[in-house]
Amino acid sequence: LVTKYHLDPRVYETVKQVSKRRDFTPEEEAEFFRGIQEHPFALLVKLSDRGNNVEDLYNMSVWKVHEYIGETNRFFLPMCAYGMEHYPGLIGPLEILRDKILCLTQAAEIMVDRYEARELELRKQLKALRVENAKLFQTMNALWER
Question: Where does the chain show beta strands of DSSP type E?
Fold first, then answer.
């Protein structure tokens, strides 16, 4: 890409740095995020990507939303804080990204909590209806036998 298409080597290196493998151990994952926060451009790219991705939380399954928000809280919000502390020139963009990420993840948590509560309520109602149905079936059988 760099040689054949004259891609700026800094862009290539940044893309490599922010691309996460799926087979990371927890320790490798933590090191991956630490490495990103030590490079201001990579930090902005990764946080911008997360800021974009949290716009689509409503398309994810409930368990994926929990997983995604957990990862955001463990890695991305601390990376914002690190960047604001160590890169004063990036405070403005990092605050905007942090606020966007926080706002959307908090809204998603509220919606998921409501969804799960409603699902639990409906499961209880379904169980009660099954019990009532079984009783009605017994009553119908008793009447039929008469």
Answer: none
